[in-house]
């Protein structure tokens, strides 16, 4: 198994604070909606959950609060250390270094598997297929697998929202993203890190080809992520509810799935489906 892309390792091993990003301002809608979608498909409390690519425990934290047992796996040592430091006091939490494409986990051992990160950074289809296949392998009969992906149009819409689209270097990068899905930073620029941007139907197909039965393909933030003016309203609880409601209202509209930055595939091992 080839190592994780060094650019990805360096990006997350540096001072980048993913935990702070997803809890900051309008970015928090990603966390709120991801939790909302996952909880909808988790059948009970006290489940065994494998959080693959779980970073510093962003999702493990609320899963533990809900009464679940969580084992986190991440390829970045800094993330694992931070997760243990933050959540290691909880006896229902464990964490280790590992690779989503080859999990050191027994078959049929978890009620739910989260892939809220690994699929972002695997540019080769066989690597993404391996990740889905491993998730299907370790999920129990009747279990559920969640896979989050970045949408194909994310850099285009982000450039329009932030004004970077007027930079010729940025536009050339966007052209490549749109044509191939393979996102790489131009020389001397840092726009996220090495990544793969999916079309919604492509992500579902990859899950199915790995032996999973797709139950739902859901948008996370929708257009809300690309409207900077919403930032001013986010701290107002009533306004925040309106924004989240708007994202939820279009979550399963096929014509709009590629509009937001993220979608979530909800799937089950085929052996669990009658």
Structure, explained:
- By secondary structure, the chain is α/β, with parallel strands linked by helices.
- The protein has a single domain (6-272), classed as Vaccinia Virus protein VP39 (Rossmann fold, 3-Layer(aba) Sandwich).
- It contains ten helices and nine strands.
- It has helices spanning 6-13, 18-22, 28-41, 58-65, 77-87, 125-138, 154-162, 168-180, 200-209, 237-249; strands at residues 48-52, 69-74, 93-97, 110-115, 139-151, 182-183, 195-198, 212-219, 262-269.
- Strands 1, 2, 3, 4, 5, 6, 7, 8 and 9 form a nine-stranded mixed β-sheet that branches.
- Helix 5 (77-87) links the parallel strand 2 (69-74) and strand 3.
- The longest helix has 14 residues, at 28-41.
- The two termini are 34 Å apart.
- The model has no long low-confidence stretch (mean pLDDT 95).
Query: What's the CATH architecture?
Result: 3-Layer(aba) Sandwich
- Unreliable spans: none
Number of strands: 9
Give the class from helix and strand content and strand pairing.
Answer: alpha/beta
Q: Largest sheet, described in full?
A: 9 strands, mixed
Q: Which radius of gyration do the C-alpha atoms yield?
A: 18 Å
Distance between the termini: 34 Å
Helix-strand sequence: HHHEHEHEEHEHHEEHEHE
Task: Please indicate the count of domains.
Answer: 1
CATH class: Alpha Beta
Shape: globular
Mean pLDDT: 95
Instruction: Please name the CATH topology.
Output: Rossmann fold
Our estimate of the beta-strand percent is: 15-25%
Count every helix, treating DSSP H or I runs of 4 or more residues as helices.
Answer: 10
CATH superfamily annotation: Vaccinia Virus protein VP39
Helical coverage, percent range: 25-40%
């Amino acid at each position: 198994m080839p190592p994780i892309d060094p650019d990805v390792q360096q990006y997350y091993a540096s001072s980048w604070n993913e935990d702070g990003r997803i809890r900051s301002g309008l970015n928090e809608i990603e966390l709120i909606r991801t939790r909302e979608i996952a909880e909808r498909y988790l059948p009970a409390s006290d489940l065994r959950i494998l959080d693959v690519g779980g970073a510093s425990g962003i999702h493990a934290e609320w899963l533990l609060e809900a009464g679940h047992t969580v084992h986190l796996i991440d390829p970045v040592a800094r993330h694992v250390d931070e997760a243990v430091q933050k959540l290691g006091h909880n006896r229902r939490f464990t964490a280790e270094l590992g690779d989503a494409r080859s999990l050191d986990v027994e078959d049929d051992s978890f009620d739910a598997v989260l892939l809220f990160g690994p699929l972002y950074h695997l540019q080769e289809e066989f690597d993404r297929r391996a990740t889905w296949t491993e998730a299907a392998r370790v999920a129990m009969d009747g279990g559920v697998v969640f896979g989050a992906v970045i949408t194909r149009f994310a850099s285009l819409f982000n450039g329009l929202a932030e004004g970077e689209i007027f930079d010729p270097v940025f536009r050339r990068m966007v052209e490549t993203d749109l044509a191939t899905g393979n996102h790489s930073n131009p020389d001397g620029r840092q726009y996220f890190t090495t990544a793969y941007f999916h079309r919604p139907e492509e992500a579902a197909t990859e899950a199915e080809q790995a032996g999973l039965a797709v139950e739902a393909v859901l948008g996370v933030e929708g257009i809300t992520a690309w409207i900077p003016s919403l930032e001013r309203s986010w701290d107002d609880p009533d306004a925040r509810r309106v924004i989240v409601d708007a994202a939820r209202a279009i979550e399963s509209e096929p014509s709009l799935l590629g509009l937001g930055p993220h979608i979530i595939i909800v799937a089950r091992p085929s052996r669990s489906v009658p």
